[in-house]
Design brief:
Number of strands: 13
Keywords: Carbohydrate metabolism, Cellulose degradation, Glycosidase, Hydrolase, Polysaccharide degradation
Strand order of the largest sheet: 1-2-3-4-5-7-10-11
EC number: 3.2.1.21
Shape: globular
Number of domains: 1
Distance between the termini: 30 Å
Largest sheet: 8 strands, parallel, barrel
CATH topology: TIM Barrel
Protein name: Beta-glucosidase
Order of helices and strands: EHHHEHHEHHEHHEEHHHEEEHEHEEEH
Oligomer: single chain
Radius of gyration: 22 Å
Number of helices: 15
Structural class: alpha/beta
CATH class: Alpha Beta
GO cellular component, one term: cytosol
InterPro entries: GH, GH_1_N_CS, Glyco_hydro_1, Glyco_hydro_1_AS, Glyco_hydro_1_beta-glucosidase
């Protein structure tokens, strides 16, 4: 079924059509109050990068670097959500979800990353929140999804301590404007990506390549989270659910050797425990601190930082896409690399992959959620899960994305299995509402439940979107008895 125009956002189907993959059916074990949502981020969908006082972000700058983004593409227009927001909210409502997770654009709320809030930018989010509430959809705000104001990067970016304090100021401005209606707040989305891809490997904005800076960025991102959380906790209308979203996976040893077990532990330390241990336990893992010292890096911890970082959380957002197997040897059997450090090598499982090259391992989501419950004890919400595939548009305009439908079906069942094993998982948000600007991949990769024709901005609900809608309806009905 297709969307014929922006003001007619969806067709309706009660059963899976040809080639759609598994038929919708209730998912056993998910309660009536389980949250169902879709997710997006500001730079990936909004466009209007030069309108209503918005200042440049690091992604506006990075997209202009030759070779940084596939096809030299950028988010100047993206999905034009800034101008099509009411129709897009109608589209969200048509999918039957109860929650919409979206991010605020820091340079739209607070141009330049300093000073007072921008009334014209805030007004957009005022309208968005009101549109959602009018349709019975809960707004779930992410304060930071990677669009740092360029002026703050010029002043040092996340490796500079002052950025954490600027983030807290921005968080307070946003909460003052929207906290009377929005009760669910996430501080950061995937600080690992901001720190490592942005400041170590250079694959993401701002495109820097300095391992020491990336680890300083880790600490200051977490500090910014804690400072912002304290501001929101102190607000008169404190959030019902305050959290942070991390991109997490599993780290499995390739074999029983000590080298393989050590490699998996290093990977888990750098990808999971480096973030969750200070957030929950108020300390950095000692083995990770020692590993960083071997690489000549000391985290810039000052008195009181860890207490701030471990400000209590109500919920942990989990973004899950895959799990990894690690070997502690090179393909030639060496246990140390050319840099003299122990080897940590990803070993393929030989499983099917998405268009991103990520292996599809839904059982690892169950394993991850059970482990998080055991080690950290926080309620969790799946704030992102989804897959890019090379969609084909049929002659009638429909998108029969059976591979994506199967992906969602397998991973939602994995969430139910985690709940059955004792994990306190309270919601699932599909990534993404619609195809969008996929960072360094430009517009080449499509994750959406809704297809976007970037030439016409026409929205088309894919078969996976119809399946998701029907699965939500049937699961709610079954849970209600």
């Amino acid at each position: 079924m297709t969307a014929t125009a922006p003001d007619s956002p969806t067709g309706h189907s009660t059963a899976a059509g040809p080639g759609t993959g598994p038929a919708a059916e209730p998912v056993a074990g998910l309660p009536a109050d389980f949250r169902w949502g879709v997710a997006t981020s500001s730079y990936q969908i909004e466009g209007a990068t030069g309108e209503d006082g918005r200042s440049p972000s690091i992604w506006d700058t990075f997209c202009r670097v030759p070779g940084a983004v596939a096809g030299g593409e950028n988010g100047d227009t993206a999905c034009d959500h800034y101008h099509r927001m009411p129709q897009d909210v109608e589209l969200i409502a048509s999918l039957g979800v109860d929650t919409y997770r979206f991010s605020l654009a820091w340079p739209r709320i607070q141009p330049g990353g300093s000073g007072k809030g921008n009334p014209r930018g805030i007004a957009f989010y005022d309208r968005l929140v009101d549109e959602l509430l009018e349709r019975g959809i809960t707004p779930w705000i992410t304060l930071y999804h990677w669009d740092l104001p360029q002026e703050l990067e010029d002043a040092g970016g996340w490796p500079a301590r002052d950025t954490a304090h600027r983030f807290a100021d921005y968080a307070e401005i946003a909460h003052d404007a929207l906290g009377d209606r929005v009760r669910h707040w996430t501080t950061l989305n995937e600080p690992w990506c901001s720190a490592v891809l942005g400041y170590d490997t250079g694959e993401h904005a701002p495109g820097r390549r300095d391992f020491g800076d990336s680890m300083r960025a880790v600490h200051h991102l977490l500090l910014g989270h804690g400072l912002a959380a304290q501001r929101l906790r102190a607000a008169g209308s404190a959030p019902e659910e305050l959290g942070i979203t991390l991109n997490l996976g599993t780290a499995t040893p390739a074999g029983d050797s000590e080298a393989d077990r050590a490699a998996a532990r290093r990977a888990d330390g750098m990808g999971t425990r480096l973030y969750l241990d200070p957030l929950v336990h108020g300390r950095y893992p000692q083995d990770v601190v020692e590993h960083l010292a071997e690489r000549g890096v000391t985290l810039p911890v000052e008195d009181g930082d860890l207490e701030t970082i471990s400000t209590p959380l109500d919920v942990l957002g989990v973004n899950y896409y895959t799990g990894h197997v690690f070997s502690g040897t090179t393909e030639d059997g060496a246990t140390t690399g050319e840099d003299g450090l122990p080897v940590t090598r990803v070993v393929p499982r030989g499983r099917p992959r998405t268009a991103m090259g990520w292996e599809i391992v839904p059982e690892c989501l169950t394993e991850l959620l059970v482990r998080l419950q055991k080690d950290y004890g926080l309620p969790t919400v799946i704030t992102e899960n989804g897959a890019a595939f090379d969609d084909t548009v049929a002659g009638d305009g429909a998108v029969h994305d059976a591979d994506r439908t199967a992906y969602f079906a397998d991973h939602i069942r994995a969430v139910a299995a985690a709940r059955a094993a004792g994990a306190d998982v309270r919601g699932y948000f599909a990534w993404s509402l619609m195809d969008n600007f996929e960072w360094a991949y430009g517009y080449d990769k499509r994750f959406g439940l809704v297809r976007v024709d970037y030439d016409t901005q026409r929205r088309t609900v894919k078969d996976s979107g119809l399946w998701y809608r029907d699965t939500i309806r049937l699961t709610r009905r079954a849970a209600a008895g």
